[in-house]
Amino acid sequence: MPADSNIGTDGGRPERPRKIIHVDMDAFFASVEQRDDPALRGRPVAVGGSSQRGVVAAASYEARKYGVRSAMPSVTARRKCPELVFVKPRFDVYKAVSAQIRAIFAEYADLVEPLSLDEAYLDVTDNPHGIASATEIARRIRARIREETGLTASAGVSYNKFLAKLASDHRKPDGLFVIPPADGPAFVETLPVRRFHGVGPATAARMNGLGIETGLDLRQRTLEFLQRHFGKSGGYYYWIARGIDHRTVRSDRPRKSVGAENTFFEDLVTPDAVRAALGPIIDKVWRYCDRGGIRGRTVTLKVRYADFRQVTRRRTEPRFVTGQAEIERLSMALLEPLLPLEQGIRLLGVTLSSLEEEAGEPGPQLSLTL
After folding, report:
1. Active site residue 266
2. Active-site hit among 33, 62, 113, 119
3. Low-confidence ranges of the chain (pLDDT < 50)
4. What domain count does the chain have?
5. In this predicted structure, what is the pLDDT of residue 156?
6. Cα 114 to Cα 249: distance, rounded to the nearest angstrom
7. Where is this site: Substrate discrimination (predicted)?
8. What is the per-residue pLDDT for 253?
9. Does the residue 8 lie in any domain?
10. Which of 232, 231, 201, 172 has its CA nearest to residue 27?
11. Domain shared by 215 and 263, yes or no
């Protein structure tokens, strides 16, 4: 279930209709590189490391045609696309371009919720220019982004966040798609559940095992059935299958977790080496938390082995973790069941998560002009 969801299990809360836009830059990192280097245009490009231990951070659409995807090992990407061009990431440039894009958002919406450098939700129900049509606002934003950055963006327009994100994915790249209130439930029922934001690969596989392949299949299951099989997330799945999502666009969206990780040039092959390597990672997490006055209850350990298999282990404490020594103790406790090592470790990560916010309650969606 998305961390900032406030969908509950009761459909009785009415609310004012909203006009939501989800803007998603097209292959952002790779597109910036192709913009700045004409020699890369039209070629399959991967942003990331090209070494044996490298990972693809982003792939151009030309590369995606070969099956190259982000988070894919570079050796696998090269195997899928021998003509792939690797480019080292320039995060300072991506952040600068992202700042340009956010400045454009701010001209058209008072409520902007960035999700990452390359995507955001905008609530334009009330907007600085008094434009009645959310679709027109999305057109203007996309035109301004192209004019000022030379890049393309896809946008989805709908009456809630869930559908707006589905809409922005529907016509990528360089697309604009609108899902009006009358079409929301029907649009959802035709899609495979793996396309739903908040349904990851593991959950989609569990749903498929229960005979839930599409939004329609999901809608035909009772709330009790979904809660029995998916716990608290069952309420979220129940309502989105009906096109209902009352999460608000929050410009002050709180940080839900603080994490750090490290990929090692040589695999860690002994328990002592792994324990020693965790120290600087934990230190980095705690320094950020201490500086910002951040406290959390859940510690998560991420381990990626030499064969790229990844496991995560987490533990939630009844009270806030209040010191670096406590994060270290919990991280080491999560590590111990993984020892002795089956094989070398190439990446370690530690995350401290905050308390989840209280869930709200959904209600019937009302009609509006998008």
Report:
1. no
2. 119
3. 1-14, 355-367
4. 3
5. 98
6. 9
7. 29
8. 66
9. no
10. 172
11. no
